[in-house]
UniProtKB/TrEMBL annotation:
Signal peptide from the UniProt entry: 1-27
Source organism: Xylocopa violacea (Violet carpenter bee)
Gene3D superfamilies named in the record: Glutaredoxin (3.40.30.10)
Keyword Signal attributed: yes
All residue ranges annotated as the Thioredoxin domain in the record: 11-117, 121-262, 268-388
Protein name as catalogued: Thioredoxin domain-containing protein
InterPro entries: PDI (IPR051063), PDI_thioredoxin-like_dom (IPR005788), Thioredoxin-like_sf (IPR036249), Thioredoxin_CS (IPR017937), Thioredoxin_domain (IPR013766)
Amino acid sequence: MTASSLSYTMLKKHIFLFVFLLSRVNSEQDHVHTTQYTKDNFSTEIQKKNHFIMFYAPWCGHCQRLEPTWEQLAEMSNQEDNIKIAKVDCTTDNSLCTEHDVTGYPTLKFFKAGEVKGTKFRGSRDLPSLTSFLSDQLGTIFGSKDTVPPPPEPVNGLVELTEDTFDKHVSSGYHFVKFYAPWCGHCQKLAPTWEELANSLSNSNYVSISKVDCIQHRSICRQFEIKGYPTLLWIEDGKKVDKYTGQRTHEDLKAYVTKMLGKENDQANVKTDSPDSATHAVLSLTGESFEHGIANGISFVKFFAPWCGHCKRLAPIWKDLGKKFLTNDNVKIVKVDCTLDVSKELCNEQEVDGFPTLYLYRDGLKVSEYNGARNLDDLYEFVMNYVQPHDEL
């Protein structure tokens, strides 16, 4: 090989290496949204604006599982002026983590601008719970800035549902519903296919294809316990029957609709025996519906917050309690989400100062607060004492 050809070969290798490294840097910059803080800049930066900080260790499995959600949260915060999502590596800044009482990974803390003491997040680490927590801390709905890209316009049979229209629309018949967030990449990829599905079934008298923006209409998504985006649910007569987990092609989605419509008789039996039936044994009320909802009979009400750990532990027991009174028209087992804007004033009026708070009402009037053990037997006995009061003198 001549000297000139050797030089040319070496030059090609260097150009290739340069292009490869440049593409790696650009790729990493495209995907990194979360700010990394160290002991050198942490104290200065958190004085400037509100912060939500993840204290983590790179080897920690829980931290690795949280990372995609944390990135989504950071992406959402790009639309916000008053908060930054950041993280601190406790393996390289151990003294900083010790200073903030980090004893396990990941530890998530909200720091109000100008304050050095953070508020620890204790809820489940899914996106709805994290955004709900931030909304409470900020006093505004996190992720709802006007700069968020608007959802696609409804076309040819695709129904855009809101908090005002959802319950009535799905109360009867068959519905295939997409729960989404406008900033979610997977949702954006699915959008044209979902519109195509709605268009292809627009003349059907049997099923409705619709969508719900979970950023604008959080209460619906909380009601159906949406944990990620997009979530596709099959709903019959107002009740969730199935969650779609297959491929998101038009053919696969349409085949699923055909299958679910063909299982009408079988699904009726599934709904009766399914654990999901317990969910609907609990009446979900808000500040707007509360007074009417508890006006008659006995109502046992759980006031809660979705991020509250004690509330989460009580949730399955509360469903079982509702199921026990499913056939008793005089007893309602109720829950009220105090983090919803439409319910915050109600919770203040009812003197809810901690979560969960359990009050029993008779014909709209508060009768008693429950402070006993939160197991099914004790809760059931408490209600029955008011259903069948003792007549002894």
